[in-house]
Fold each of these.
Amino acid sequence: MPVYNVMEEVVHNVLQQYENDLRLTCHCERCKDDIMAIALNEIKPRYIVNDKLNPVIRVEHVADRQSATNILSTVVKAARIVSASPRCENAKKE
Ligand SMILES: [Zn+2]
């Protein structure tokens, strides 16, 4: 289906950009996926059809500081939840 939630990309970018500031107890892909899933459930999705619109919507989000702050605080919240109880293999070993 040529429709996808552009917020996936936005949250992914935020996670990459702030990974070192989130004080994650684990940096594996599984934990980052969990953070993304939790954050994306909180954030209103924006489905788009045309890939060429991506940069426009991203710029719009960067310009809209309120929504950028909301996205960041949602990612921070999700990171705290996952860091408190990681579900990956690394966590089981300890
Ligand atoms: Zn992990």
Note: The beta strands are 4-5, 47-48.
Amino acid sequence: MAHCTISTISAFRDNYIWCIHDDSTAVIVDPGDATPVLRFLEDNNLDLEAALVTHHHPDHVGGIQTLGTNFPNLRVIGSPESRFGGIKEQVREGDSVIAGGNSFSVIDVPGHTLDHIAFVLSNEESTHLFCGDTLFSAGCGRLFEGTAKQMHDSLRKLQNLPAETQIYCAHEYTLSNLDFALSLMPNNKDLQDYHNQCTLKRENNESTIPTTLSQELKINPFLRESDPEIIDNLQTLNYKALSEAEDRFAAIRHAKDNA
Ligand SMILES: [Zn+2]
């Protein structure tokens, strides 16, 4: 594929399904619902080659069976640990998978679920990360199956990607995440500016996603567990002084869950 386009397909209340395509062939990430995907493919006259699955939750895999009926050769690519029974090609950290003419590398990112993986598409111009429910703009996924340490380690791996990496997460949670982020970093000027930009986008019914790693490093409390302003505010919230970064990460996650 000489070039590719990444299109947003909205699903349910606040899910994003990502479609990577050229003029003829598409790859879809986390199709929780088949209906909007089939409509998009038909409107754009696209054949569906593969579905990439980040984790087993129904709002990420619920459309795969119907898509497989419409596209009998559909490749369903995901983790060998997946509790979703429809994975046909298993991939794990270190693997690369070619789909739709693009090469995606795989990173294990347990935490939100134990089977969670992320896909990285790199080309000459840029790096694109499809991270499901691991890293959100100004937030991260809840810990349904994994530990805070696992999620912290997973986010560390994502932080090692190039700063200009475009981040395609699976939910529009940005504004509510920003409210929490502002409670921990009320004096962060980048955060205030980003909050204003995102508020305006949502008022105009625009997506705040993709975000970029460089932006998230400035404003996402889950990537800033050593920020002195956050450490101060955690103590105000009665989290005692925590010397280990991963313990501070766990405290931030706990505070968000109880916000
Ligand atoms: Zn999930």
Note: The chain is about 35% helix and 25% strand.
